[in-house]
Design goal:
The complex is a heterodimer of chains A (369) and B (127). Chain A is α+β, with helices and mostly antiparallel strands and 369 residues long. Chain A folds into two domains: 1-281, 2-Layer Sandwich (Gyrase A, domain 2); 284-359, Elongation Factor Tu (Ef-tu), domain 3 (Beta Barrel), CATH 2.40.30. Chain A is 21% helix and 34% strand. Chain A has nine helices and 21 strands. In chain A, strands 10-11-12-9-3-13 form a six-stranded mixed beta sheet. A six-stranded antiparallel β-barrel of chain A has the order 14-17-16-15-18-19. Chain B has 127 residues and is of the alpha+beta class. Chain B has a single domain (8-107), classed as RNA polymerase II/Efflux pump adaptor protein, barrel-sandwich hybrid domain (OB fold (Dihydrolipoamide Acetyltransferase, E2P), Beta Barrel), CATH 2.40.50.100. Helix content of chain B is 21%, strand content 33%. Chain B contains four helices and nine strands, in the order βββαβββββααβα. In chain B, strands 1-2-3-9-8-5 form a six-stranded antiparallel beta sheet. The model of chain B has no long low-confidence stretch (mean pLDDT 96). The chains are: A alpha+beta (369), B alpha+beta (127).
């Protein structure tokens, strides 16, 4: 029996099929997963993402030092965060360059940065930060915010649904640029609204006190947002070319072989955990997208891929509801080029797939053929 | 759960219907389609293939996973439903209309030994 989010009863009441995810009992779908997927691409869907852990890293008022610590702890460079509310996607690396987790970090003030980490890795991440802090910045405090719930509202109509459900949020959210967040006082308490997500659509992630989560969820439903489970979340993020931690990368994989080189700042002179290891690497693998050309099955994680340059493996695969074809993310030899035809072992068959540069879909539009 | 009483069932979640010509029509149950989720790919056996009872002979894949369909009884495949494989979602819409394949049973008495609706419902309830 997994842990329950504050919305667990609402999922049950809505007839959700539940599944264990990172130790949490989460909805995988409420009916048709494909219908939920289309709702996000065409209108708006909402996801309970309260299993993700919000962790604030704080200093005494005016003492600062948080930025300096994160400059060392994260592979992406928090110096890109100059305006308050600005968010950054980053890997948390081990010394050997393996990926401990992928996180979003928000710059709230020089005394407080907010980090959102994955559910299954939260305890590990917190222990890792604690160890680094003890060594480098013992005056800083790590504040897990387990009293916060998180609801993602995603899709071209996400903005109007959120406006209807959360009066008072409009002023704050209307001028919010992508990858920015802002704290607002609402009838649901102190609420943090961020224009972020995991679907490839416009949308918001709303963090709010757990006791108000059900009320916001029902208000969003009344505004017409479709409840969506982890099933649709997975097909949406895969179409958007976004990695899933534990599947597309983990502690044994370099971010450079997992399509995450763009998130690693190797140019600036600053040192960070894993930097020396990454500089010493010459990756033999790269991440590419695959679009299945033959009928005969669905691309799935762990299927072998044969290329003219050697073997690779699918890390995430599914049927793409938007393309009407099977798609995948795969780790392939570096010599494979976009547009190459490769062969995937699906059960007893060898099926042809074409390599593409992810994303497959963004803002409702198909970007590959 | 929709379990029509005029059909027979296997504990591997296939339904069976006796046809007047002695053949048996086979599909997956409503419970099975519900558990699998949205179906996106179906592979059917070749007509003429001779199956043993319990043999994996078809594949149904949903957005979530692939699953085998088993021959509930030994026999020869005499027909397959191409309409189902070209529209996998039809199994989600009506699992008892979207049949998969038709067998001529090696043992004409095999169907009588399968679960009836009440027994299948009880089996699913306990599983």
């Amino acid at each position: 029996m997994g842990r329950h989010t504050p919305l667990h009863a609402a999922h049950r009441a809505a007839g959700a099929r539940m599944v264990d995810f990172g130790g949490w009992d989460m909805p995988v779908n409420y009916g048709s997963q494909i219908d939920e997927h289309h709702a996000v691409r065409r209108d708006a869907g909402m996801f309970d993402v309260s299993h993700m852990r919000v962790v604030d890293l704080e200093a005494d008022a005016g003492a600062g030092g948080v930025r300096d610590f994160l400059r060392y702890a994260l592979a992406n460079n928090v110096d890109k965060l100059q305006s308050p509310g600005r968010a950054l996607y980053s890997c948390l690396l081990r010394t050997d360059g393996g990926v401990l987790d992928d996180v979003i970090v928000y710059f709230l003030s020089e005394d407080r940065f907010r980090i959102v980490v994955n559910a299954g890795t939260a305890e590990k991440d917190i222990a890792w930060f604690a160890k680094l802090l003890a060594a480098r910045a013992p005056a800083l405090r790590l504040q897990p915010r387990e009293e916060l719930a998180m609801i993602a509202v995603q899709g071209p109509k996400a903005r109007e649904k959120l406006r209807a459900a959360l009066p008072g949020s409009e002023t704050a959210s209307s001028g919010l640029k992508p990858f920015f967040g802002v704290a607002v006082s609402t009838e649901f308490g102190e609420t943090f609204i961020a224009r972020t997500g995991y679907t490839g659509e416009d949308g918001f992630e709303v963090m709010l006190p757990a006791q108000h989560a059900q009320a916001l969820w029902h208000a969003l439903a009344a505004a017409g947002a479709t409840p969506c489970g982890l099933g649709a979340r997975d097909t949406l993020r895969l179409e958007a070319g976004l990695n899933l931690y534990g599947q597309d990368m983990d502690e044994t994989v370099s971010p450079l072989a997992a399509g995450l080189a763009w998130t690693v700042d190797l140019e600036s002179p600053r040192d960070f955990v894993g930097k020396a290891a990454l500089l010493a690497q010459s990756p033999s693998q790269q991440q590419l997208g695959l679009v299945l050309q033959d009928a005969g099955g669905v691309l799935r994680a762990h299927q072998r891929v044969n290329t003219a340059q050697g073997e690779g493996e699918i890390t995430s695969g599914t049927f793409s509801p938007t393309l009407g074809k099977s798609i995948a993310l795969a780790r392939l030899p570096t010599g494979v080029a976009v547009g190459d035809t490769v062969s995937v072992a699906v059960r007893d068959k060898a099926l042809a797939a074409r390599t593409v540069k992810p994303p497959f879909v963004r803002n409702g539009r198909v970007l590959v053929s | 759960m929709n379990v029509p009483t005029d059909l027979k069932y296997a504990d591997s979640h296939e339904w069976m219907r006796a046809e007047s010509d002695g053949t048996v029509t086979i599909g997956i149950t409503d419970h099975a389609q519900e558990a699998l989720g949205d179906l996106v790919f179906i592979e059917l056996p070749a007509v003429g293939r001779v199956l043993k009872a319990g043999e994996a002979c078809a594949i149904v894949e949903s957005v979530k996973a692939a699953s085998d369909v088993y021959a509930p009884m030994s026999g020869e495949v005499v027909a397959v439903n191409d309409a189902a494989s070209s529209a996998p979602e039809s199994l989600n819409e009506d699992a008892y209309a979207a049949w998969l394949f038709r067998l001529r049973p090696a043992d004409p008495g095999a169907l009588a030994t399968m679960l009836d609706a009440a027994a299948y419902e009880k089996f699913v309830g306990e599983a």
